[in-house]
Amino acid sequence: DLQICQHRAPTCCTKKMEESYQAAVRRERTQSIQALNFELKYMIVGHITAFQEAFESLLRFAENRTSSLFETAYRPMAKEAAEPVKELFTDISLYILGAETTVESAVLRFFDSLFPLVYSRLINPGITDLSEDYTECLRLTRQDINPFGHYSKNMVTELSKSLWASRMLSQALSLGIEVINSTEHAALSKECSRALVKMQYCPHCQGLTLIRPCVGYCLNVMRGCLASVSELDAQWREFISTLEYLTNEMAASHELEIALSGIWSSINEAILHAQLNGPQLSATVDKVCGQPKQHEGNLSSANIVPVKEVTGTQTFVMAHTSLNNKRREFISYMKRSRTFYASIAERLCDGDLVMRDSSTCWNGEDVV
Fold first, then answer.
1. What is the pTM of this model?
2. Alpha carbon of 144 to those of 139, 147, 245: distances in Å?
3. 3-state SS, residue 294
4. Residues whose CB falls within 8 Å of the CB of residue 126, separated by 6 or more in sequence, listed in order
5. Number of domains making up the chain
6. Residue 71 contacts residue 310 (beta carbons within 8 Å)
7. What is the CA 347 to chain-centroid distance, rounded?
8. In a domain, 306, yes or no
9. pLDDT, tens digit, for every residue of 263-288?
10. What is the domain range of residue 320?
């Protein structure tokens, strides 16, 4: 009653053993593909981690530098500006990791929050009553009167351009992991599992436990079983080319690093622009939002924050170097894996599975 290992000679197998063999080949095939995928997946996951660590390090440096700008140059508003600064860099980080947000919305939201502070602490430092309604009016007015000139728009343009490739690379790497995971669990067809049993275990039914499949026979069976997986070849090659393009875009002129480390400068220029145009801004705001309560004299010392030195330059340089080295190492490895899916049958038939350099092997029917 054998269904797969039918042979004219007496056999040691039963139908139940054939079913056990089918379960075994399914398990072994999954394990073999997982073993092949392991190095590739390890490299991608490792690069995702290294990229995120280096990026977070750059981001922290840029955030510290921006905070130091307020604490040294704009101390009257430093305490209140801390939260908008933190939100800006959190939004940038989320954008890189693929969140449904944009660089433009993050930057403009930051300047919306910044304008009430600049207006009440620098342009009109005598304002005492900054109610929620008045603050909200200032936020909304920012969009119409554009107190920060072209600097806010320039910051959007520079950051969008440099962060785009980083965001795309992050998403592409995650997609690569998804593809690899899906191939590991691709279901074997009934015909395939029968063919694998015939190739690997039917010799056992004849007592031939040491004989192994012929190379050509193994390749034919594996190619048939993995036809759907090997169809990924063209798309995988294209995927590698895209990764190469994105890493080159990120490396070009070190745009990512320059854009992040230059955020504080853009904000500084924007604030200076608003201060220079203070009288015109005040006249417009008075018409739209009304005149707030004012008092004469100096600001409360509660708003004064101790000066901190800008630190972290060494960290920035190290993160920058680390990111560049990782990029080169990673893309070099990925380029070598271009033929990964085209050659998967050959790789599975390599090693201990087949008989090499021997005059005898199993061809599916007999020893040849």
1. 0.74
2. 10, 9, 39
3. strand
4. 294, 295, 296, 297
5. 1
6. no
7. 29
8. no
9. 999 999 999 999 999 999 999 998 99
10. 15-291+315-349
